[in-house]
Amino acid sequence: MLNRKAVVVLSGGLDSTTCLGIAADEGYSLYTLTFDYGQRHARELRAAEQVADYYQVADRRIVKLDFLRKIGKSALTDFHLSVPKNVHDGEDIPITYVPGRNLLFLSLAASFAEAIEAQAIYIGVNALDYSGYPDCRPQFIQAVQKVLDVGTKTAVEGAPISLQTPLLHLTKAEIIRWGHRLGVPYQLTTSCYEGAEEACGECDSCRLRLRGFKEAGLIDPIPYRSL
Q1: In what order do the strands lie in the sheet with 5-9?
Q2: What is the pTM for the complete model shown?
Q3: 42-80 b/e with 16+ CB inside 10 Å = b?
């Protein structure tokens, strides 16, 4: 199909940037959607802009969702809560989980995709090397795909939007190796929940990223404060 379009949910982090690289490699015309939801690590908004520049994304949108900050209940949106450091992986859902975040993101991505007649939505959720968030699991993605299939005009008229999650079942090292082969600009990305110029190296997101690069046999190109 000529001129296939994909909406990529782009945070400026490692996983979403890898998804953008994959969508580009698969020949899609790229449209990015980035969310300013009052996150502590707002530096990722600048990273997303730099990544979009790198891929020459002509149509990029930044959507403000301060509702997520107003409801709080997450260390990423409520600055009275501390970001956990050096916490061992466990089964509990950590306090960095943002209630309803990916559900809202995908709802708005679906709206954007319908408006521009895109064939796919890419989101960098991962259910292996991740923090245990419920909206990063296969069951969630399957449920959202069903909603898109029955709740969008394009699907009812025979042109359903495909929810693409190429990283869902990969380890962080596998994700990084794939992105490295595609030339994904990891030097432009940020993953640290603290949002400083230098990553802390201690939060859950930093630890998963560092472990992934180590297991991939590669050097993480961003600076760290504690290394």
Answers
A1: 59-64, 29-36, 5-9, 120-122, 162-164
A2: 0.95
A3: ebbbebbbebbebbebeebeeeebeebbeebebbbbbee
pLDDT by residue, tens only, the chain of 227 residues:
568 999 999 999 999 999 999 999 999 999 999 999 999 988 999 999 999 999 999 999 999 998 999 998 999 999 899 999 877 555 688 999 999 999 999 999 999 999 999 999 999 999 987 888 999 999 999 999 999 999 999 999 999 999 999 999 999 999 999 999 999 999 999 999 999 999 999 999 999 999 999 999 999 999 999 76
Task: Tell the residue number behind the tokens 């069903």, with chain if given.
Answer: 146
Question: Looking up tokens 């190296």, which residue turns up?
Answer: 201
- Which amino acid appears at position 97 of this protein? Y
How many Cβ atoms sit within 10 Å of the Cβ of residue 160? 15
